[in-house]
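Batch job 17 of 40 flagged for manual review because the log was empty.
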Amino acid sequence: MHLEFFPSKTLTFYLARLFITRILAVLVMLVLILMMLDLLGESGKILAAEGNGDAQLWTYAGLRVPQLVARFLPYSVLLATIITLATLNQNSEVISMKAAGLSAHQVLAPLLLTAALVSLASFVFNERIVTRATATLDAWQAVDYGPVPEDSGVRSNVYLRDGGNIMLAASLSGSGNAMRMQGVTYYRRDAGGTIVEQIRADSATFANPGWRLDNATAFDVRETTTREAGTLVLAEDVEPSQIAISSVDADSQNLMELSRSIEALQAAGRRTTQLEAAWWHKISGPLSAMLMPLLGAIAAFGLARSGQLLVRAIIGMALGFAYFVVDNAALAMGNFGGYPPLIAAWAPFLLFALVGETVLVRTEE
């Protein structure tokens, strides 16, 4: 019996090649189908903006595809695992490998190595491409698919508090004193918290102190009247540094940027549980691809002619999808403070690693 963890070099490359080609095939199929469905729902909104045409549809697809790849890569690895192992089992290749003295772990070793490389590539892809695409797409959607923002630091849906008043911006670009808001709404409230006036402006710039709104329109809630307010300076207590830490989107920041945002929020006494859970999940999320061969391994073993191959494939698929359900639930609990961020991000991974290993050992080893 072989004592090495990996089988022969030839067999390792054979299994790895089978696995990676199926991962790519399933991923391309899923992304193409989901992209077409997504375009059916968004194309009307994109083309409704003045001046938009086919080029903007391609721009949207270019920004959306990285998100779809990042989200559905682990699912692709799971489905590719089921397809690869079920095919090997049906063709009696698994029986031949076990007859040659290979253990179940040695049969799975090339798949686990391939999945580990996929996880590493997924992590780099998320950090370098997905975060930037997400930030740009969010900012573009915030202006209803108007001119594509050129500033990579654009943020969307900014919420600020000016004492008892509230200031909202559809998007924000620039940094420091050069910050500029688009689609600004300012809600003036009385001592009881009731909105008494709503002020809207297309843009706002930092006036040091305060924010200057040009061509503003004011709506008096009590009198139900609208008036042209011209140029106003509001929110004199709101500094650019406050905005920088009040509009943190974990999905549009890489690990280093998110670390700095968390430190700034903690220094300001803000709650960072949700962002800390997202920080850890940026590491554990891509590693879920490495877990899929272990959860789907049950499809590789057992006699195909016994009629249990389909049942085993369904069980492997159920284990994989159960992981995604538990992972999302744990992350949601971490966001609400039910679990510590570290536990919320890593507990599902470790739990299902033990489950997959237990199933494999109990049934095959």
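Reviewer: the log was empty due to a logging misconfiguration, but the result itself is present. The chain is about 60% helix and 15% strand. Unflagging and moving on to job 18.
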